[in-house]
Amino acid sequence: MAISKLGVLGAGAMGAGIAQISAQAGLKVVLVDIDQKFVDRGLQTMNKNWEKDASKGKITQEDKERFLGNIQTSLDKSALKDCELVIEAIIENIDIKKQAFRELGEICSPSTVLATNTSGLSITEIGAASGRPDRVVGMHFFNPVPVMRLVEVIPGEETTEETVELAMEVSRIIGKTPIRAKEAPGFIVNRLLVPYLNDAAHAYQEGVASAEDIDLAMKLGANMPIGPLALCDLVGIDVLLMVVEHFYKEFGDPKFRPALALKQKVRAGHFGVKTGKGFFDYT
Ligand code: CAA
């Protein structure tokens, strides 16, 4: 195996998903967050998924215990110091990510590769903050992580080929199909998907149709597995808005103007599935 011990920083939906599939693949996982309640929520999500798999006969209770036994949790980043690879999956904010990479750069062994699950921020900028830009790479996963098969692997300006290869190899070990993308806002998937989701929110704001009908239209008329507004709720409207705003700034193109409907949902604290309300209700 390319690595035996993987660190995950951030136990939210993405971090917990990455920890789950890595533990399933037999890696020792160190999962770190800043508050025990986030760690507990992440463990609960994994537990729920494993219970579901066990009830379908896909895994046994012993498998579940073994997976859980592969996960160590901590509130202290220094628990990540001897991991061969650390994947960061914290809030999509460049200043907070840079601060986290500055700390990881100081804490982790010089050989540790640091990956970011950013949806579209600059790998080069994050890498520069770490003090080891040659060993920083983007590893972009998709929600829900246990189901979605892709990982986009994105080198920054100074990332070495060896670092990219490690990210590709680990992606395969944890059951994903990696593809390589250049550093550009949104890489591949979000470059195409985010304008579509933002447009659906514009259409909703303009009253083109109800939320239900916009989603039904794309499911029945374009064979999408899920409607665009339900997908906004799944991704997190707060995350989506940050990505659209980043696109608007980076491309300077009015086609990326964030929909007012996204801003209003965020201002109201209705981020989607994770808060129980977004374009649809989940309570
Ligand atoms: N965690 C783990 N497993 C899950 C899950 C979750 N959150 N949600 C669904 N599943 C599993 C189910 O257990 C089920 O497994 P089995 O096949 O073993 O029974 C399987 O997925 C299918 O689920 P359902 O039958 O309940 O529901 P569905 O057919 O509607 O599928 C879905 C659910 C796969 C999520 C589907 O709705 C889908 O494909 N949605 C689109 C997801 C997508 O586009 N994600 C990308 C978002 S963009 C992003 O993440 C990047 C970013 O940076 C913003």
Describe the structure.
With 283 residues, the chain is α/β, with parallel strands linked by helices. The protein has two domains: 5-180, 3-Layer(aba) Sandwich (Rossmann fold), CATH 3.40.50.720; 194-274, N-(1-d-carboxylethyl)-l-norvaline Dehydrogenase, domain 2. The chain is built from eleven helices and eight strands. It has helices at 13-24, 36-55, 61-69, 94-107, 123-130, 161-173, 189-205, 211-222, 228-235, 237-251, 260-267; strands at 5-9, 28-32, 71-74, 85-88, 113-116, 136-140, 150-155, 177-180. The radius of gyration is 19 Å and the shape is globular. The chain starts with a strand and ends in a 16-residue tail after the last helix. The structure holds acetoacetyl-coenzyme A. Residues 49, 52, 56, 119, 142-144, 146-148, 190, 193, 225-226, 231, 235, 239 line the site of acetoacetyl-coenzyme A.
For the structure shown, list the relevant keywords.
8-stranded mixed beta sheet; alpha/beta; 283 residues; globular; binds acetoacetyl-coenzyme A; N-(1-d-carboxylethyl)-l-norvaline Dehydrogenase, domain 2; 8 strands; 11 helices; Rossmann fold
Oligomerization state of this entry? single chain
Strand order of the largest sheet: 3-2-1-4-5-6-7-8
Largest sheet: 8 strands, mixed
CATH topology of the largest domain: Rossmann fold
Poorly predicted ranges (pLDDT <50, ≥5 residues)?
none
- The structure class reads alpha/beta
State the order of secondary-structure elements, H for helix, E for strand. EHEHHEEHEHEEHEHHHHH
* Rg calculated over all Cα atoms: 19 Å
Mean pLDDT: 97
Helix content percent band: 40-55%
Care to count the β-strands? Answer: 8
End-to-end separation in angstroms reads: 43 Å
List the domain count as a whole number: 2
GO molecular function: 3-hydroxybutyryl-CoA dehydrogenase activity; NAD+ binding
Protein name: 3-hydroxybutyryl-CoA dehydrogenase
Family: Belongs to the 3-hydroxyacyl-CoA dehydrogenase family.
Site (Important for catalytic activity): 140
